Amino acid sequence: MGHLFVAHGDLTKLACDAVLIPCDDKGWVTPSWRSLLPPELPRDNRTGWLLLPNKPDADGIVRLPPLDKRSVQAFASMEWVATDPADVAERLLRAVSSVSGDLPALDGRAVPLVGIPLAGTGHGGLAHRRGEVIDKLLEKHRVQGSSLKCDVALILYERRDFVAVQARRRPEDWPWNVLREELRDKADHLGRLARTGQLSLFLGSGVSRPVGLPDWNGLLEYLAKATNIDLPSNVTPETAASIIKSTLPAATYHQELKNALDCHRHGIGHALLASLPVTQMVTTNFDPCMELALEGALGPDEFRVLIRQVADSSKPWLLKLNGDIGDPASVVLTTEDFQLHEEENRALHGLVQGLLLTSHLLFVGFSFTDESVLRLAEFVTRVLRAARSASPNSYSNTAIALTPDDLRKISYDDLEILQMSDSATDVREAARLLEIFLDRLCWKAISENDRAAEYLLDDRYLSSLSAEDQQLRDGLLRLVDETSSNVKSNSTGWKRIEAVLRDLGWRPSTSQ
Known about the structure:
Layout: E1 4-8, E2 18-23, E3 28-29, E4 50-51, E5 61-63, E6 71-76, H1 85-100, E7 113-116, H2 130-144, E8 151-156, H3 159-168, H4 181-195, E9 199-203, H5 216-226, H6 237-246, H7 250-261, H8 268-274, E10 280-283, H9 289-298, E11 304-306, E12 317-320, H10 335-344, H11 346-358, E13 360-364, H12 371-383, H13 385-390, E14 397-401, E15 415-419, H14 427-447, H15 467-482, H16 485-490, H17 492-503, H18 508-511
Parallel strand pairs: 1-8, 2-6, 2-7, 7-8, 9-10, 9-13, 10-12, 11-12, 13-14, 14-15
Antiparallel strand pairs: 3-4, 5-6
Organism: Mycobacterium bourgelatii
Pfam families: SIR2_2
InterPro entries: DHS-like_NAD/FAD-binding_dom (IPR029035)
C-alpha cells in the first residue's frame, strides 16, 4: 500500500521522484509554482497566471520538463472554478495514479515518492471549504491507496492546513503490516515527548541520503575520484580526508566539498522533523537540507543556525556541530580538523552534553562513528549512573537503526536502539519504514499539541467541523460578542482570553 506522508513546508523544495502542481482545464497555473516551471511562459497581465505549453491530456495531465531529478507534472484540479471537494480529491489521486505508473524510485528509495499540494484551496474556488477537501482527500486515499504504486507526500504550506490534516488522520493510517505495533508505540511515546517539549533531535548523514547526498564514506569516495587519488584501504575516514586535503589547494578542496554537498532540496525526513514542535536540534551534516525544511515549516527568520547566527532563546535553533557547507572552511572532516575542533569548540560539545543530560535526544540517521560524540555520550552515562539506578528500565535517549548491522555496539547505557527492519540486506525498505515511523511520530506530536485545534475559529474550516466543534465554536464566538468593549479594553484577563482565541484561528475582522 502506498503511504501518505503529511508535512508542513514548501513542496517546491521537496526531493521526490515526481511533483504534481494544480492547473485549470485550459492549462493556466498560478505564479506561486514558477520555480518548477519552464522559463518565459505566457503570462496573464491581469491575474499573473502562467499558461503551460500544452492543455491537459485525457488523464488531466500536462507533462513538463524534469527539474532536479524530479518529474514535474501539472494536473487539472478543476474546470474553471472548483465546486466539489470530492471531485478535486478524485482528480488529484487519479493524477497520482497516472504519474506513478512507470515512475522509477531514485536516490535509494524503495518506492517512488510523489509530492502533492492541497489542491483547490488556493485560487481553485474551495479556499473556504478547505476542511472538506482535506476530509475527501484522506477518505479517498484510504480507499485507493492500496492500489497506488507510490508513496505520496502531502506538503501543506499553511500551518492550519497541516494541523487540520493531522487532526483528521486515524491510528489505522499506519497499518500493522507496514509499521509493527512495537514501533507504533515507540513513535507515539516520542511524539508525546515532542508535544511536551522534552524531545531534542540529533541528525546524521542518513537523513540526507534520500536527497541524493553522500554519507561520510560516500563523500570521501567522491573527493578521491574527483582528485584522482587512490586511498589506502586500511586508514580511518579522518586519515583518508587528511590525505585528500593535503594534495589539493584550499580553494579547490572547498569547491569540491560544495560540489558534493550543496543542494536546494530536502528530503521527506527533513520535512517531518522540521514539522515537529522541537526547539533544539543538532546535526553533524554539512549540507543545508534541514535549514531548507525549517524555512518551509517555520519561516526563514523564525529559527537560528548556530554558530552562523547568534542564538535567540525565543526561537528554535539548529547546531551544525561539524561545520556548514555554506562556509567550506568550517567543515570538520580530517584528523587535524577534529583535533582543532575539539580544542576550540568545547562550548559546542558542552551544549550537546547539556541536551543529553536535560532532554530526550533522538538520534536519526547517525551511525555513531564520530568518536568525539561517543565520548560526550559516555561522559553523560557516567554522570547519570546514580539516577539510572532508581529507574533501571528507562532510557534517556533513543537511536533509530535501519538494520541489525546499522549501529555498532557502544558503551552507552542510556541509549535505546529502535530497529526498523530485521533484514540486514533491504536497507531501502528499512529507510522507508524510518520515514513512516517519523510520520507517525509527527502525527502524534501535532494531533495532541496545545495548538492542535488552531483552525477551530478560522471561517475557512467551518463547513467541515464536527457537531461538537461547531458547538464549541459557537460558544466561544458568543463570548466574544457578549463581552463589552470596556472589558476588552481594560481587563487583563481578556488579553489572555484573546490570545487563546487567536491561537484557535479567531480574527476580529472576520469573526465578530
